[in-house]
Amino acid sequence: MDLGPKKHLKSVAAPKHWMVDKLVSVFAPCPSTSPHKLRKCLLLIIFLRNRFKYALTGDEAKICMQQFIKIDGKVQNDITYSAEFMNVISIDKTERISI
């Protein structure tokens, strides 16, 4: 008896391009519902933790709640929002842009 979408994702089942340490933690962040497929997307929390090195933990990655992060010019508050290949991610305070 399922009650809604799955909210957990094991680190072993995470896509390889997310660069999640499979031996360090049991769970990986699960993307929120979006038009992008799981195997073609990269989560905002993974951008902040692994790529940009702005946060060490998931709790520190909640800086996107302060509305500094824009994806394609729109402010995103959801840390599990999935961005795809041609999305432009910009951070207002640091003036850093990633495509």
TrEMBL record:
Alphabetical GO biological process terms: translation
Where does the Small ribosomal subunit protein eS4 N-terminal domain start and stop, copy by copy? 4-39
- InterPro entries according to UniProt: Ribosomal_eS4, Ribosomal_eS4_N, S4_RNA-bd_sf
Any one GO MF annotation of this record = rRNA binding
Q: Does the keyword Zinc-finger apply?
A: no
Q: Single GO cellular component annotation?
A: cytosolic small ribosomal subunit
**Transmembrane segments annotated in the record for this chain:** none
Q: Which domain of life is it from?
A: Eukaryota
Keywords, in A-Z order: Ribonucleoprotein, Ribosomal protein, RNA-binding, rRNA-binding
Family according to the record: Belongs to the eukaryotic ribosomal protein eS4 family.
The name of this protein is Small ribosomal subunit protein eS4 N-terminal domain-containing protein
